[in-house]
Write a structure and sequence with these properties.
Chain lengths: 146, 76, 146, 76
């Protein structure tokens, strides 16, 4: 299990490739992997967006995500979880979040991946401030339910 | 010791502080912490945490606690 | 959009990495990617499995998957889909299926990825025959609902 | 022309054929195709396709059609 909050760009598929190579003990145990990747769009609420800044509450974010992942792994008997979240300055196309789960069967993988994303989006203390292409900055007001 | 108070994102800009240290005298709840930090009314949608856990405004606050106020979260 | 049925081993994350590099026009449009990877387990219905053979009905499988992907892309306004399925001889740990969808928002990505997998598992004409570690072969009787 | 018939997986082994060509004379439905190919009773869970589309056993069959019989699918 790995949780990382980083200011560095995330290459989601390369990270998954290298992470999965480090779990050889699970070969033959894993029947299902479900992955969600959230990336920055260049358009939001009728405005073109040129950049975004992601702020967070470091100690609480890490604690919240660790508790969430532990609870989710138990609830759905997961074999492994990888969760990455970007902070700092990002531009359109950048990966913001990656959630990957590994389990024996697909129902658990789908449900757990969805649960992690919905909880993260509604409770983890991150905030987005958008830079509008036409000038100015604005805070994103709230996340929409999935 | 003191009570450590943090404000994030749009609330940090609105209140004008990111970190404050308060003397614990006269502070019993999270609401008391807010009122010692600012004359702004507490927004209806504000979120609060004590020692990195979500709480409600009536939650008790003790010397040495870390108290945070922030707007609805928008990560992911 | 790409659909491929192959006897070659599938490296899911490397395939996703190279596929996504070929869709530069969608940078800034994609807000969500959902991926499911199904892989071969070494244990099923109380037996250790050493290998498996995947048979299919080539012309119907391809037609079925093309129709399914087209219908799903329309229903959830997807930006792109990649669907890979292995056939022939496989061993534990091998990737059997990869379903990846790209969309503007996460609700559509999750729902469409799930829909593609459930329809594929219940309707696409593939069949698995397991080789038991203790000897003998057996056909898998049916897929369980997700 | 002829009717092309295919059997897959466990049904192929049970019926003993993977491909058969039938003369269309006397064939009206998918059930007729089955009965011309084998004396086995049609299993309750058999799936059927005509020209690569799922059908029911009463579906009409014409000269030149491709008819397939197979057990429940287990891909993915």
């Amino acid at each position: 299990m790995q949780i990382e909050i980083t200011t560095d760009p995330i290459s989601p598929w390369q990270r998954l490739d290298s992470y999965q190579q480090q779990m050889p003990g699970l070969v033959g145990k894993v029947g299902a992997s479900a992955v969600f990747v959230g990336s920055m769009r260049d358009f939001n609420e009728d405005e073109s967006i040129s950049a975004m800044r992601l702020e967070h509450y470091p100690a609480m974010t890490l604690k919240y995500l660790q508790d969430l992942v532990n609870q989710t792994m138990q609830q759905w008997s997961l074999l492994d979880v990888l969760l990455l979240h970007r902070v700092g300055e990002v531009t359109p196309g950048d990966t913001i979040v990656l959630v990957a789960v590994w389990s024996a069967h697909r129902a658990e993988a789908f449900a757990a991946c969805r649960h992690l994303m919905e909880e993260l989006k509604s409770r983890a203390p991150f905030w987005k401030q958008e830079t509008l292409r036409e000038g100015g900055r604005r805070w994103v007001g709230k996340n929409t339910p999935g | 010791m003191t009570i450590e108070v943090k404000f994030f994102a749009s609330l940090r800009e609105r209140v004008g502080h990111s970190d404050l240290q308060l003397e614990p005298a006269g502070i019993t709840t999270v609401t008391d912490v807010w009122q010692q930090c600012t004359r702004e009314a507490m927004p209806a949608n504000v979120l609060m945490a004590v020692n990195l856990e979500y709480v409600q405004s009536g939650h008790p606050v003790h010397d040495g606690d870390e108290v945070a106020f922030f707007p609805p979260v928008t990560g992911g």
